[in-house]
Amino acid sequence: MPTNPFDFDPKDVVAFVLILVRLAGLFITAPVYSSRNIPPQLKAAWVLLMTFLVFPVVSYQTSTLPAPGLALGLSVVKEAAIGMCLGFGAQLLFTGIQMAGQIIDIQMGLGMATIIDPVSNVQISVMGQFYFMIATLVFLAVDGHHLLIRAVVDSFALLPLGGAHFTIALGTEMMHLFSNVFFIAFRVGAPVIGALFITNLALGVVARTVPQMNVFIVGMPLNMGIGLLIVAISMSFFVYTLQDLFHGLNRDLAILIHALR
Question: CA nearest 127: which of 95, 93, 100?
């Protein structure tokens, strides 16, 4: 491993490429880094710069590096998959947060008012987009973007270049993260979801006791007003929950890394 990142030995070129590919995999799927609002040229330059910075601190044995050919191609795929797994594990947190907003929108009657999310380029609900924007700001405030870079750099100590193994443990952990999306959604949206459930329950009782009242006309603005009110009141709870989730992200990424060993 050279001390000068610009003084390349032919044997170290393979290591540099593998490090670059692992970092590039993270930038493809990780929140914030994978945003479509960031020009691809800027992403490529940032990945290259990060590779130059990380390359001197990564320990590897040139004798264990794959030779050019099929073995090198397979190692490139492995390294890209490692970075993508770590980024996707973090992205699932934001998926759960967006799901919370979508559930709230359905209860508030805004389920049909969807907009295009410029990050994922798909239709997303109004509250889902609002929650996503707040989550992104909190993620940056708690240095979550630095945490992702640190997780990838630390992964080189546990996962040598080209040494990852995709086992059943990885599939089990990914399934756990997928199922955790629903838990995150209800945890984030619990105050609003609970308040709107009680509101709809009360409207149902009123509809049975006072059949002359048009509950549909009364219920829509009532649900919307109560929903927005609870969202505003519970914003501090929402931010606290996000901070707790992002602080636990380091643990989830460490479990993913160990599952790849």
Answer: 100
CB atoms within 10 A of CB 44: 13
Encode pLDDT of 124-162 as tens digits. Answer: 678 888 898 899 999 999 888 888 888 888 888 888 877
Q: Provide the residue ranges of all domains of the chain, joining segments of one domain with +.
A: 10-259
Using only C-alpha atoms, the chain has a radius of gyration, in whole angstroms, of 23
> What is the C-alpha end-to-end distance of the chain, expressed in Å?
23
Half-sphere exposure of 134 (CA within 13 A, CB side): 22
Residue that the structure tokens 């009680």 belong to = 198
Range list of H helices, 60-167: 70-108, 126-141, 144-158
Whether the Cβ atoms of residue 81 and residue 28 lie closer than 8 Å to each other: no
Checking 216-220 for CB contacts under 8 A at 24+ apart, the result is: 220/109
Of these ranges, 119-123, 139-143, 201-205, the one predicted with the greatest mean pLDDT is 139-143
Q: What is the DSSP string of 1-38?
A: --SSTTS--HHHHHHHHHHHHHHHHHHHHSTTTT-TTS
Q: How many DSSP H helices and E strands does the chain contain?
A: 10, 2
- 11-16's contacts with Cβ under 8 Å and 24+ in sequence apart are 11/62, 11/65, 12/62, 14/65, 14/66, 14/68, 14/72, 15/55, 15/58, 15/60, 15/62, 15/65, 15/161, 16/51, 16/55
Decide: residue 40, CB within 10 A, 0-12 exposed, 13-18 middle, 19+ buried: exposed
Residue where the block lists tokens 């559930």: 103
Residue 201, Ramachandran bin (φ over 0: left; ψ between -120 and 50: alpha; else beta): alpha
Cβ–Cβ under 8 Å, residues 150 and 143: no
